[in-house]
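Reply to dn_fold:

You asked what the input looked like. This is it:
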Amino acid sequence: MASLSLRTSRHLATSTRTTAPWICQSCCQSRTFASSVSRNQQPPPPPSHQDPTQPPLPGTRQDDAPTHFGFSTIPSTLKASRVANVFSSVASSYDTMNDLMSLGIHRLWKDHFVRCLNPGIRPTGPAGLRSESTKEEGQRILDIAGGTGDIAQRMLDHATTVNKDMKTHVTISDINPEMLAEGRKRFAGSDYQLAGRVDFLEANAENLSTIPSNSIDLYTVAFGIRNFTHKDQALREAFRVLKPGGVFACLEFTPHLSNSVLDGLYKRWSFGAIPLIGQVVAGDRDSYQYLVESIERFPGQGEFRDMIKEAGFLVPGQEGGEGEKGGWEDLSLGIAAVHKGVKPV
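and this is what came back:
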């Protein structure tokens, strides 16, 4: 996999805006993603939201319907607990896990992901000073499946150092308390915690009942949504909590590389080496085996783009297009991809 190796670079979240060769240049050319959506694109009909206290509507999915857990098929009611066991097992070594699964490139993907979302509100006054009318402003960011806090830290670093925004706040949400514990360790005693700019929420992304509708500016999920039982429901919840004009952004592994030869090599590495390393390094082959299988079962880029649209979001691109023309951005030949959507105003 030498072709996947990248030159080591310093942390990009607070660095210059130089575009690396493994990403597209157009992503970072605009201030916000929302401005890139065509004004002529008509928003889809808003999704209907069923009251969770009411009985299921006729024809809706039942809780005990079968779903996948890696390559296994299990009742939907069991998946959340099975996934919870996996992440409880790997919580303390989660970043190492992603290093193994991506050959360390995940750190650069995350830097790029955050930089192109450009979190925070820029100063608008003269000489770069924030005007009186914007001093109290700041983005409300919800980082889903963000337990260890690495995405949240990048968001806050970027907002603070690049956009000089000392008000933007991030809520780190995760269904797993062990993952949240790792995030709390990361931020313990930090300036962000002392300033009240970060908090933690133990919640299921499919039911964010404690978060008001139309209250979030930016919803992010990195390497987490493939583990959700009902991805469509999680997308509808993302749509609900976002403000009109708010952005949904997802960074996730993809099931297939764009090059078939490299795809075969990558799969041999994934299914052969990663579970073995998990067994040797962490004494946990099964968890790593599931994580590799979960990538294979995740929808392809075009299918996931359509799911985002069906949830009500506007997505740029053309029907039948690939990559940016299709409404997503492939990273490192398609090992991972960035998907975005905007809630119509």
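Residues 71-120+135-342 form a domain with the Rossmann fold fold (CATH 3.40.50.150).
Hope that clears it up.
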